[in-house]
Specification:
heterodimer; A: alpha+beta; six-stranded antiparallel beta sheet; four-stranded antiparallel beta sheet; 1 helix; elongated; B: mainly alpha; two-stranded antiparallel ribbon; two-stranded antiparallel sheet; 4 strands; globular; binds FE2/S2 (inorganic) cluster
């Protein structure tokens, strides 16, 4: 009798583990593909590191243009004194697209009133980080913007 | 005769008799706060309006980045009464959220959440969250500029949560950026996922209200006050409320038709004066006032955690309110409620008064 009991208990919990384990395995085998399915596949980023942003003469002084840098927008600014400056146009705060304010002569984000200077540094507002500044080269009549290595 | 026969036939198959009996036996307390009893029903009514107008819009709407904006334009300009249906859908969404807030705060201040109604409070709380999710996902569907940036900011906020934020963001956006993939995803949430969840929650919520009956505010003794039968007295008054809401809805839709805006361009600067919808305004402004860095934390992360934390506390307050559970006045909890209402209203008004710079 006693013997029987001693044998039974481990056998019982063994079956419990087996059952519990297979239920867990079942749940996992349903959940894993489900989660993998709903997370979108990575699209290979056409990570262009250099683009033709504009033609010289296309931009009047003290104005700006948004251009495509791969999948992200960049901003090209023609300053009052004739310089071309390019940086990422994605605000480091919550990702709105910034603009150049001719009246303030610096960069501004409409979403939460973030201000950046022409070196991409935050002047005021909530953005936590500076904007990434790009290199600008003028080749012929084309303005080429490229990421700084 | 025939009517009777039909009634008999159906009541054998469906428990009609029991339902009518239940409706007749069910009573609703009558007292000076009884007005607040109607807001739950108003929410329900508006939800039905949303389902019906939503299905109608589905007949013409196309959820792709290329044609979403145009299809809404088509609905508004070409489809007969399209402008009306779309306007009603948009206005009803806003009134529904407003009514849900009123419903929630009245329930809170009257302490109707006290035992045994904690689960009713919980399901109601989740319904409000779902309605906000409906608002957020539906806002993007016309694919206009404001919607585009609202989604940009909203999904980025989710992305600011440490560890899991990145995954949540990618999941919501259907990729790294807000694109046509995001639009299709939000469409799926808006017309399939959220309605499914709502139906279940709503069924539980309403079932619980039936099981527990209407709560009488603390200090009003249940056996001393007047009661009126639910059927037909209360339900008729309910219907008066619904027709008033419907009138308001049609009035707003006709005289202030919902705008379409400018088609979203993922490569254009955010427009000046960009604002979220009014029911997200208090969060928007609060985040705006938190500096970029607080000690070692990013202001954003801190603000978002603050809101999540506050939301969880709010959801659980009924479980902390031991006094109300004993039918005693609990001034402290009333004060919390008043504070929350004041905070939300004042900050929202400030949001609309701030210049857009
Ligand atoms: S997204 Fe630019 S300031 Fe918030």
């Amino acid at each position: 009798m006693n013997n029987n009991k001693e044998v039974n208990i481990p056998r019982r919990s063994f079956i419990d583990y087996l059952l519990g384990g297979s239920i867990l395995a079942l749940i996992a085998s349903v959940l894993y593909p489900t989660i993998k399915f709903i997370m979108p596949p990575k699209v290979p980023e056409a990570s262009q590191s250099s683009v033709k942003a504009a033609k010289v003469g296309e931009l009047a002084p003290n104005s700006y243009k948004i251009f495509r840098m791969g999948t992200k927008p960049g901003i090209l600014i023609h300053t009052e004194d004739g310089k071309f400056i390019a940086m990422s146009a994605v605000c480091t705060h919550l990702g709105c697209i910034i603009q150049y304010r001719p009246d303030m002569q610096h960069v501004w984000c409409a979403c939460h009133n973030g201000h950046f200077d022409l070196n991409g540094k935050v002047i005021s507002g909530p953005p936590p980080l500076p904007l990434e500044v790009f290199q600008v080269n003028i080749v012929g009549d084309e303005i080429i913007v490229s990421k700084k290595g | 005769m025939e009517k009777n026969f039909l009634y008999e036939w159906f009541s054998k198959r469906i428990p009609l008799k029991n339902m009518i009996e239940f409706g007749k036996k069910k009573t609703v307390p009558v007292h000076k706060y009884s007005v607040w009893y109607y807001f739950g029903g108003i929410c329900l009514f508006l939800f039905v309006v949303q389902v019906l107008t939503g299905i109608m819009l589905l007949l013409y709407y196309r959820p792709t980045a290329e044609s979403a904006f145009e299809s809404v334009q088509f609905i508004v300009t070409q489809v007969k009464f399209g402008w009306l249906v779309r306007s009603i859908h948009s206005w009803a969404a806003n009134i529904l959220i407003a009514a849900s807030f009123i419903h929630m705060f009245s329930v809170y201040l009257m302490k109707s959440y006290r035992p045994p109604r904690e689960m009713t409070w919980l399901t109601g709380f989740f319904l409000l969250l779902i309605f906000l999710a409906f608002g957020f996902s539906g806002y993007l569907l016309p694919w206009n500029e404001l919607a585009f940036f609202a989604t940009q900011v909203g999904t980025n906020m989710a992305g600011a949560i440490p560890l899991v934020g990145g995954y949540i963001k990618t999941f919501l956006r259907g990729g790294e950026e807000v694109t046509g993939a995001t639009l299709i995803r939000f469409f799926g949430f808006h017309v399939a996922v959220l309605p499914g969840i709502t139906t279940v929650l709503l069924a539980i919520h309403i079932y619980l209200v039936q099981v527990h009956g209407m709560s009488a505010p603390i200090g009003i003794e249940k056996n001393k006050i007047k009661e009126e039968p639910f059927f037909p007295n209360f339900i008729l008054k309910d219907m008066v409320g619904w027709s008033l809401v419907l009138t308001l809805l049609v009035f707003l839709s006709v005289f202030f038709p919902w705008e379409i805006g400018v088609k979203a361009d993922p490569f254009a600067s955010a427009p000046v004066g960009i604002k979220p919808e009014w029911y997200f305004m208090f969060m928007f402004i609060t985040l705006k006032f938190i500096p970029g860095k607080v000690l070692f934390f990013e202001g954003e992360v801190l603000g978002i955690f603050g809101f999540i934390f506050a939301g969880i506390i709010w959801m659980l307050l009924p479980f902390f309110d031991k006094k109300a559970a004993q039918e005693k006045r609990s001034t402290f909890f009333t004060l919390i409620g008043v504070f929350v209402i004041l905070y939300i209203s004042v900050i929202t008004i400030v949001g609309y008064m701030l210049p857009g710079k």
